Amino acid sequence: MGQNVIDIDERLRIVGTAHVSSASVALVNAQIKEFDPDLVAVELCESRLRSLKRPEDLDNDDLLKIINEGRSSMILLQSALAAQQRRMGLETGEKPGAELLAAIEAAEEADIEHALIDRDVVITLRRAWRKMGLREKWRVLNALLWEDDDEDFDLDELLEDSYLLTTLSEEARDAAPRAGEVLIDERDAYLAGRIQQVRGKGKVLAIVGAGHINGIIEHLEKPALETTSRLAELKAEPPKPIWPKVIIWAIPLFLASVVGYLAYNGEIEALKDTLWYWMVANAALAGLGVALARGHPLAILVGALASPITSLNPTLAAGWFAGYTQLKTAAPTGGDAAEFLALRDYDVFYKNRVGRVLLVTALGNLGSALGAWLAGGAIVGVIFDLLA
């Protein structure tokens, strides 16, 4: 029995895989034939399985829903993580999660029941993002998007060396401890809880990332009720902090108060300066954000025009209008969706139409927010000049 094939008892076997290793695909198929399980439990959630099985199903209606629900940033972060895995797997010719999809297909072919035991990926990313501080977020984004990893390693060697996998996980935790808590510790607990839930269905073969094996085993050694009782807590959406809502409502109230004060006191020149700063800062930075995303000229114009208005209404966002315009002016096709979800390189965010819609939305919103802050600072300066 290999280091990453662990028999907990005669009715539960855990197989650890590397998500971008061709050897893992062969290992999974061999273990299903050898163990002959009644149920195959796989480290996937519904959304990840859907993207693996039917990448072309991401259509324009889905993109519009992502824009309207404000999920473009989370989808981009998820995509960056997947692109990192894909880059690691190019040498082996496997896409991320190929062995997990192979496990489900082999189970279906053998008429074996399967269960998805991972937490929804969007919930995981939201919990990680909200736990991280600004410095940790920067380190994560820098590592994903700009740092080149020149270290050579053999994925199949990693798969055979559980100690090395654990070491790599701990190194990742050192760089981003709060993210590590969510991406590693919480998911270890969640996977173990879900495995406990399905153990009553006969012989269970659990297919998980090899880096999770030690944590899962540790949780399985605890009483089953203790492990499963945490599932609801771990599956919950993280609470949104109050201070961003306070700030986004305070900005329009602040502007309205300043405009009212200046108009009441007849400070016409200061009033003109205030409105000018608000219009220019919002429009310029929102337009710049869309331009940096290589948005369509019409999307840049719409983002710039919308920003001074949407910054006054916290229920709207300039990036939504820019993203919708980008979606309509350069509509993605089914082939674009498949190419984007394949994530062979980071260039896909700019060159692919799906990636560009998401990037236009995210950077348009970011530029609009920065513009509101810059305009607010300039308006405070106008008030100080009057009072001096």
Please tell me about this protein's structure.
The chain is built from 20 helices and five strands. The chain has 388 residues and is of the alpha/beta class. It has two domains: 179 residues, no CATH class; 145 residues, no CATH class. The chain has a five-stranded mixed beta sheet, sandwiched between helices. The longest helix has 35 residues. It is elongated and about 85 Å long. About 8% of the residues have low confidence.
Strand order within the widest beta sheet: 1-2-5-3-4
The biggest beta sheet is recorded as: 5 strands, mixed
Give the SSE order as H and E letters.
EEHEHHHHEHHHHHEHHHHHHHHHH
* Category from helices, strands and their pairing: alpha/beta
What's the shape? Answer: elongated
**Low-confidence sequence ranges:** 84-94, 150-168
